[in-house]
Specification:
By secondary structure, the chain is α/β, with parallel strands linked by helices. It has four domains: 275 residues, TIM Barrel (Alpha-Beta Barrel); 28 residues, no CATH class; 58 residues; 122 residues, Alpha-isopropylmalate synthase LeuA, regulatory domain (Double Stranded RNA Binding Domain, 2-Layer Sandwich), CATH 3.30.160. Helices cover 40% and strands 21% of the residues. The strands form five sheets. It has an eight-stranded parallel β-barrel with strand order 2-3-4-5-6-7-8-9, surrounded by seven helices. Helix 8 links the parallel strand 8 and strand 9. Helix 1 packs antiparallel against helix 10 and helix 8 packs across helix 9. The protein binds 3-methyl-2-oxobutanoic acid and zinc ion. The site of zinc ion (ZN) has 7 residues, from loops. It catalyses: 3-methyl-2-oxobutanoate + acetyl-CoA + H2O = (2S)-2-isopropylmalate + CoA + H(+). InterPro entries: 2-IPM_HCS-like (IPR050073), 2-isopropylmalate_synth_dimer (IPR013709), AIPM/Hcit_synth_CS (IPR002034), Aldolase_TIM (IPR013785), LeuA/HCS_post-cat (IPR054691), LeuA_allosteric_dom_sf (IPR036230), LeuA_bact_synth (IPR005671), PYR_CT (IPR000891). Keywords: Acyltransferase, Amino-acid biosynthesis, Branched-chain amino acid biosynthesis, Cytoplasm, Leucine biosynthesis, Manganese, Metal-binding, Transferase.
Length: 514
């Protein structure tokens, strides 16, 4: 059996999804979960793209020990130097440097001749190898590149020291048959190809990213790149959980091994969905809410007689558990700690205290506290940044009646610690609340999106709100949960605004304590 390395790029290509912006604690939590999921390589970000990305990559490189950590760099010395600064403390630092090879990219984007592109690729890979033990070189837009040009440049880049060659379908254009053929051609025609790992990286513009990735593996790729829930640029990247489950369920056809721990899929998917605000469609393969639901009578009857009639994947395989009542009103701190540790949460002592208080408050107001409820409370507390100056909600009141003008009154403390309050109206209660918050906040805010959903079922379910806005011109997103929809809305608004105050020091302080 051939071993395939799993390269996760949720924190880099995934984070490039429109409207996604993760804070550093959220990125760190996703990185920890990816490590539990067993990914071999984790692309933690693009260090030269912003100070925030640099800090996040550095923190992840210093924390994660069981996956190799990589960061993206353009083919410039500056990008490579910055990436080295961010990655040098990793257990196994690795660079991912890319340069486009298709005629359209070389001519219009790079403004370079093919010979200049070859020389730049050689120079940058050899420059990178002076520092990094592992260097992946990506031929951006490989699937629209000339095959013989690819053979020439790949041969030279391997001689320059590349250890992995990645052939992305950057624009999601190729078909499984074509993509597989490209891998076979490169395997058969690049004389030194045996010295490197060959990697595939697919986008889903035509809905073929997973099929293309599987075709690449069948034709000689030994590394597959993708993201959790398939998030990423435009229509997204190949979904890693789909590839993992396809390789497992169809092992009769795919004779490949990997290191993934499939029962971590559900938790990984939930965490990514919650932090990015990109909800998983109910009909999504493997992780959608309906993936294991059988609606029609004929199917239900079949499954009751023998689950194999209609169920090819068991929920247990991917870590989907029945949503039992977890803890009750009388559960003590010890039982609570045990439970949350079983759920994969390891909180600092003060955050554990806060989580226990929130749990107790919830048991007073909600009949059943489920795993989903706990997951929501815990992820909020785990990634809340303490010790930074921020806006905090003191109290609010909303008056709404079908014949009245909806009016909200809000009291906040500002980052300077001053209590401020005011009232505003709006055409609905949520708008009145948001108008009031906006009036109290000094920053320039434009709300661009607002979504409300419930966590789990039942009329007493927790509400979760997601907002997108620009704060002083920068796009940010935020989320908030509460039992009341208005409180969840206010929290999501402030969560987005406060991301602006999230500083490097706050992260280092948090991580130093873990
Ligand atoms: O899709 C792509 O080509 C990329 C490269 C940077 C590898 O994400
Ligand atoms: Zn990509």
């Amino acid at each position: 059996m051939v071993h395939v390395n799993i390269f996760d790029t949720t924190l880099r290509d995934g984070e490039q999804s429109p409207g996604v912006n993760l804070n550093q604690l959220e990125k760190l939590e996703i990185a920890r979960q990816l490590e539990r999921f067993g990914v071999d390589i984790m692309e933690a970000g693009f260090p030269a793209s912003s100070q925030g990305d640099f800090e996040a990559v550095r923190t992840i490189a210093q924390t994660i020990k069981n996956s190799s950590i990589t960061g993206l760099a353009r083919a410039t010395k500056t990008d490579i130097d910055i990436a080295w600064d961010a990655l040098k403390d990793a257990a196994e630092p690795r660079l991912h440097v890319f340069l486009a090879t298709s005629p359209i990219h070389m001519q219009y984007k790079l403004l370079k001749s093919p010979e200049e592109v070859i020389q730049t690729a050689i120079d940058m890979v050899s420059y990178a190898r002076k520092r990094f033990p592992h260097v992946e070189w990506s031929a951006e837009d490989a699937s629209r590149s000339d095959l013989d040009f690819l053979v020439r440049i790949i041969t030279k880049v391997i001689d320059a020291g590349a250890t992995v060659i990645n052939l992305p379908d950057t624009v999601g254009y190729t078909t499984p048959e074509e993509y597989g053929r490209m891998f076979r051609y490169i395997r058969e025609n690049v004389p030194n190809i045996h010295k490197v790992a060959l990697s595939c990286h697919c986008h889903d513009d035509l809905g073929m990213a997973v099929a293309n990735s599987l075709a690449a593996i069948e034709n000689g790729a030994t590394q597959v790149e993708g993201t959790i829930n398939g998030i990423g640029e435009r229509a997204g990247n190949a979904s890693l959980e789909e590839i993992a489950v396809a390789l497992n369920i169809r092992k009769d056809k795919y004779n490949f091994t990997n290191n993934l721990v499939l029962k971590e899929i559900k938790r990984t998917s939930d965490l990514v969905s919650r932090f990015t605000g990109m909800l998983v469609p109910p009909n999504k393969a493997v992780v959608g809410k309906n993936a294991f639901a059988h609606e029609s009578g004929i199917h239900q009857d079949g499954v009751l007689k023998n689950t194999l009639t209609y169920e090819i994947i068991t929920p247990e395989l991917v870590g989907v558990k029945s949503n039992d009542l977890v803890l009750g009103k009388h559960s003590g701190r010890h039982a609570f700690k045990d439970k949350i540790e079983q759920m994969g949460f390891h909180l600092l002592p003060e955050k554990l205290g806060e989580a226990f208080t929130s749990f107790k408050q919830l048991t007073d107001r909600k009949k059943e506290v489920t795993d989903e409820d706990l997951f929501t409370i815990l992820t909020d507390i785990q990634t809340a940044v303490v010790d930074i100056k921020k806006y905090e909600l003191v109290a609010f009141q909303v008056q709404y009646g079908s014949a009245n003008l909806p009016t909200a009154t809000v009291a906040l403390t500002t980052p300077e610690g001053i209590r401020v309050e005011t009232a505003r109206t709006g055409s609905g209660s949520v708008e009145a609340l948001m108008n009031t918050l906006e009036a109290l906040i000094k920053e320039e805010i434009h709300l661009t999106d607002f979504r409300l959903s419930s966590i789990g079922q039942g009329r007493d379910a927790l509400a979760e709100a997601h907002v997108k806005m620009t704060v002083n011109g920068s796009p940010v997103s935020g989320r908030g949960s509460a039992q009341d929809v208005l409180e969840a809305s206010a929290k999501s608004f402030l969560n987005a605004v406060n991301r602006v105050f999230f500083t490097h020091n706050a992260v280092l302080k948090e991580t130093a304590m873990l």
